[in-house]
Amino acid sequence: MLKLLLLLLIFSSEGTSDTHTNQNRGKTPTLLQDRYLSLPMFLDSDLPLVHRDFFSPARGSGQEPLPGPVRQLLLPAWTDTEPRSLSGVTVRTSCERNRMRLQVDRNILGLGQPVAHLRLGSCRVSRTTADHLYFEHELHGCGTKRKMLDNRIVYFNELRYEPPEPTGPIRRAAAFRLPVACYFNRFVYSYKIGYKPEVQIRKVVKKMKNAAKFVLTPRNAEWEELSPSHHYVLGEPMFFEAESVLSDGERLYVNTCYVTPEKSHTSTPRYPVIKNFGCMVEGKISRSRFFPHKNSSVRFSVDAFLFKGMTGQQLYMFCSMFVGGSDPTPTAKSCNYEPKNQRWVEVSGSSSVCDCCDSSCSSDHPAETQTISSTSWSIDPTVRSASTAKMAEGTFLMGGGRETELQ
């Protein structure tokens, strides 16, 4: 008897539900007739569309049907709208968060090669099929402009077709200009649904890397800072010093250095003097070298030169450097080349770390470096110091008689 009563109750409930659905079927959007609902994750508007109390978890038991305003908002009855067209042929526009897409029917463009004559602003066709031409571009590209209109952001451009002049008495396509636009609401409104999470706050302490301040300065032969009124002499050593404030057990390293005639580290031309994690590659063709000094500074010299075709120029040295341990490694070192013995030597550690200078020094965990620029200096291409004038005939001015100008 109990089982029969339960079956009757279930049947009665299903029948009531079907009757209620049939009564409202004429007013129900198509989405409600599916066995499941695909609800939007969010909906934006320039103004609130429903009162926020409808979304309060404390309101009601949670078993009530959706209120009318909320149902209309989340389950709108979409109507079919025809997009703008030319001569009955559709040009479809779709807008994403940061892209504009257009689909153009080939029929409105006539015969021949319409791709070459159709533009969206300043952009060409992105791709083609047998029936359509497509534009797919960023909202900020192709000359697209932006303006505010009734609390909405509008991105607008122009689809332009300019076919070539016909060679005969007839034509099969007409030029046109069609405005296209994407509209976005300026504000997005969202509502809390369900529960308010409890956030557990934790403090995370992370040691800052490369927190030290680096300085790179041109120097004279006495390692004094080069004054603005002084200059280097072509072919003689230029001296540089990189410095930092370190803790015990740390050492400053220079990975790479190059010279440019501009203030920007990305400028060209550039001439490398230190490469491969601290190898003085310029020393293989000149007297350029590192000098032993304290761990908090790196001293080195480079034979003075000029870039080809440039005179009276201001030059800049850019070096990437970092702070590491006091013991050198293949990726943290200061290596000079000894021409007499044809080998690489570390200025204050084991020279075995320099074995990779003629190949490639690499590491699975490279250190984070910082690129520092020196102040500018100039080269006098004509004046020679007294020491240079006394040099015996046949000795070099720039590393064994190499050219005094570089490309």
Number of strands: 23
Name the structural class: mainly beta
Overall 3D geometry? extended
Here the CATH topology of the largest domain equals Immunoglobulin-like
* Relevant CATH superfamily of the largest domain: Zona pellucida, ZP-C domain
Identify the CATH class of the largest domain. Mainly Beta
Which sheet architecture does the biggest sheet show? 6 strands, mixed
**Terminal-residue CA separation:** 103 Å
- The CATH architecture assignment of the largest domain turns out to be Sandwich
Mean pLDDT value: 75
**Runs with pLDDT <50, length 5+?**
1-41, 78-87, 385-407
Q: Please state the oligomeric state of the protein chains shown.
A: single chain
**Fraction of residues in H or I helices:** under 10%
Q: β content, as a range?
A: 25-35%
Give me the number of helical elements.
Answer: 3
- What's the helix-strand series? HHEEEEEEEEEEEEEEEEEEEEEEHE
The tally of domains stands at 2
Radius of gyration equals: 37 Å
